[in-house]
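Q: Given only this backbone (469 positions), what sequence would you predict?
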């Protein structure tokens, strides 16, 4: 009996329930990945993320070949092509069963329903699994059966329901029957449109696991203390691997618990705090699933639809190119260009600056981040932008606006992160670097500030209170 595993956001063998079930229930297994560059463009997937996905597919192909499972990549335009393409593969190869792991985005769910429908009509057995999160979105509910919209009670419930059996993920694959289908990954065409140093992000699930265990062995203990200082590299940088499914969140939690005597909410502070962040990721997946309006470009807080956002092309370009004249903002945006990644504290600072001081629509910033992040993930990115712009669930109150210079002094006190990314400022001392005087700017060839922090802050508060009233 032959089975097909339709890979999407699960580019790994470890803790891959669809692949595991296919291998358990059939003697010949094929994997399929539908490469749809136009659809990716529509979803603002970053060029560096596409390259990362391709490199991870190559790594996975090599691991799968060791158990005689071929990986076929078919290029097409968009999600609408999926039912026909899958039926075609099934017919040509006499496949009897199809397996996949669920995705929870609005378009992805619609695509999967269409595929399921055509498989059912053709009497092809199909089964899907949950691999993205510990609890499938929508299953953690309040006593009244409603979805949570505030993180702390969600997390409390998440912990109450937790059971170590969820992390029963160890599985040893056995070699399958050889197939006459050959993998075809050399045919993937990709036009590079980014300047990210990809050597920062080596592909492959073994690399991801090594990165995780190295972090948990050596750094997580200091996470609670170091996580907000961007120069310290105090966070795991596992997000690109999670976002493309090169590692699972169950694996992350299991490995973290091993470092904490299997305690979820006590023991080592750093581990507990780190697991908290994985729960944030799950929280935002729940928000996306339970409140489909956020997938359709709407704010979570309805009143914020009334905000009169500004738009100024020059300011937008300055922000995108790291030339706002605010060193902490510019260093963060330059990190994004160079690494395809930005430190979490800085994501909040630049997003708040964009939506409050610049008073630009959060959706523009959200899209720009997706177009540039190697860890672009719709729910976390949307959640982060809506938090920072005070339009979202459990968001920052609109009148509490980060001052980028204070943030810079607090979290990059010696200016080392700024110096790393803004060579023009590398000779300044720590007193000057956070807010260079106009004389220093000229001498350093560093741009003037695009706005006045005090008046732009008041302008934002006015815009929000006007929208509210
Ligand atoms: C405006 C904005 C946009 C963001 N966009 C994305 C995005 O597109 N993709 C993405 O994965 N994260 C996003 N985040 C969340 C967070 O910034 C990143 O997950 C984190 O910086 C990744 O680095 P790390 O792997 O070293 O994290 P660690 O601190 O080591 O955390 C471990 C994991 O927990 C999850 N996590 C951590 N913080 C958050 C958070 N605040 N929300 C949700 N999950 C979290 C991530 O999967 C992360 O890999 C965004 C945050 C903001 C404020």
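A: Predicted residues:
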């Amino acid at each position: 009996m032959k089975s097909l595993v339709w890979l999407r956001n699960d580019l790994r063998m470890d803790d891959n329930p669809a692949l595991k079930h296919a291998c358990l229930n059939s003697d010949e297994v094929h994997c399929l990945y539908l490469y749809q560059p136009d659809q990716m463009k529509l979803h603002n997937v970053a060029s560096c993320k596409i390259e990362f996905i391709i490199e991870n597919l190559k790594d996975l192909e090599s691991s799968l070949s060791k158990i005689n499972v071929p990986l076929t990549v078919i290029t097409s335009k968009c999600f609408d092509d999926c039912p026909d393409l899958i039926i075609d593969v099934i017919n040509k190869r006499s496949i009897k069963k199809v397996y996949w792991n669920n995705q929870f985005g609005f378009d992805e769910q619609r695509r999967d329903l269409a595929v399921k429908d055509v498989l059912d009509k053709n009497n092809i057995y199909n089964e899907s699994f949950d691999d993205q999160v510990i609890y499938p979105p929508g299953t953690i509910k309040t006593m009244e059966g409603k979805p949570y919209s505030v993180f702390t009670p969600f997390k409390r419930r998440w912990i109450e329901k937790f059971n170590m059996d969820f992390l029963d993920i160890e599985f040893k694959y056995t070699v399958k029957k050889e197939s006459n289908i050959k993998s075809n990954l050399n045919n993937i065409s990709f036009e590079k449109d980014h300047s990210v140093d990809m050597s920062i992000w080596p592909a492959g699930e073994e690399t991801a696991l090594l990165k995780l265990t190295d972090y948990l062995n050596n750094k997580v203990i200091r996470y609670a203390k170091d996580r907000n200082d961007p120069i310290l590299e105090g966070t795991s940088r596992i997000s690109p691997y999670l976002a493309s499914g090169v590692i699972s969140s169950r694996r992350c939690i299991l490995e973290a618990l091993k470092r904490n005597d299997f305690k979820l909410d006590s023991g080592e502070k750093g581990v507990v705090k780190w697991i908290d962040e994985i729960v944030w990721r799950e929280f935002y997946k729940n928000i996306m699933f339970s409140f489909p309006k956020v997938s359709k470009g709407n704010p979570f807080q309805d009143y914020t639809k009334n905000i009169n956002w500004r738009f100024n092309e020059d300011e937008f370009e300055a922000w995108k190119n790291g030339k706002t004249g605010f060193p902490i903002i510019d260093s963060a945006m330059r990190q994004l260009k160079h690494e395809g990644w930005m430190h979490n504290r800085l994501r909040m600072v630049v997003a708040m600056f964009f939506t409050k001081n610049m008073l630009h629509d959060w959706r523009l910033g959200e899209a720009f981040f997706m177009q540039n992040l190697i860890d672009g993930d719709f729910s976390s990115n949307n959640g982060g932008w809506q938090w920072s712009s005070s339009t979202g669930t459990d968001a920052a109150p609109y009148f509490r606006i980060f001052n980028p210079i204070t943030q810079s002094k607090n979290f990059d006190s010696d200016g080392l992160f700024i110096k790393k990314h803004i060579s023009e400022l590398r000779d300044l001392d720590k007193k000057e670097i956070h807010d260079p005087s106009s004389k220093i700017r000229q001498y350093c060839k560093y741009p003037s500030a695009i706005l006045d922090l005090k008046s732009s802050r008041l302008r934002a508060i006015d815009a929000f209170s006007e929208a509210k009233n």
